[in-house]
Request: fold
Amino acid sequence: MKEDTKLLEAKINDQYQFAISKNKITHTDFLNQAQKRLAEKFLQENKIQNYMFFGGNGQDSERNILLFFPEKFSQEMVIKNYEKILSVLKIHLPRELEYEHRIYLSGLMKLGIKREKVGDILDYPNGADIIVLNEVADFLENSLPELTRFKSAKIERISIFDVQPKLQEFEEFSIIVSSMRLDNFVAELARTSRTKATEIMNEQRVLVNYEIETKFSRKISAKDVINIRGKGKFLVGEIERQTRSEKLVVQIKKYKS
Reply:
């Protein structure tokens, strides 16, 4: 993980230095939420300014590019350049078809596209908007119809400014924990024993606020995001009440893909 962090920081620094030396807008590939957190930390520590994150799906963007721009550029000028960096592939499926997020993603991977070249996939009934870097947009527009799953689909390329943001959807429920320790949450959310929960954490499959966490006793608070690889991503809510046995009933929202 340390090597991955150093590599990410080096790539970010390269883009920043290039923006300053060439006096132009530069950008990274798409970053996931964990990478975005690392990037924000690096930018703050190095007191780097004149940057923006953008993913095309408003505040709910799961994947974002990081843009750097010279001091003479205003944010409005940077926004006008979004079209030069990102495109949206709009897929219209026949009425009888409806694909999940993973079907679209696996199709892209089948074509050999690297994940960091693709942003959010906004799936809707009978179609999806796929946000991509312009450098792969032409290839995908021509290659997607060759896949069996998209042979009967209509595929068009639209502006990033024409994408309709999709609000994050959740499945809401409550869990009962003996305390706000992380291992209690992992056991309940993964529907397993405390012993198995600690094994999952030791395998580095648990992230809290997009950072790997192996400390069983870490205290969890409302608005924390717990990601358990293979089980899903969860937003912790408020404590609803305390049971007669002094256990805690906690609100949970599970992210829908």
